[in-house]
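Student:
Attend to each token:
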Amino acid sequence: MRRLVLSLLFFLAGVGMIGYGIYNIFFYNRGMTESTAVIDHIERTMTGYDEDGSAEYDYEVLVSYTVDGKQYQSELGYHEDGFKEGQEIKIYYDPSDPEKLHADTKKMGICLVISGPALWLAALGTLLKAR
């Protein structure tokens, strides 16, 4: 019975991951306008240590971009390894309020769509092991 519940949880988590991944790939930035921003500043703040003693950090990434000749600066809301000051990145903004930024979520969506079936396989393996 425990394996059946565990398998069901893995299966449902996989469905959720695939659904959220599809949302991020196709729908999250619907109605937004794609543009390019320049990373102006990256501030790294140490927040503590994890279980193995490695330092953990929070990042604040400030970007600037131009919409209809007007310059905007905003906090990006996420950080990726490899970000550098002066680097151009893809962003999405709300055309009715250009100060509202959305990140490019396609990479994360693809990872979720790929990971979902991996959980399905784990669920199937758990069920087959029970037999």
In short: The radius of gyration is 20 Å. The mean pLDDT is 90. The chain has two domains: 1-28+105-131, 30-103.
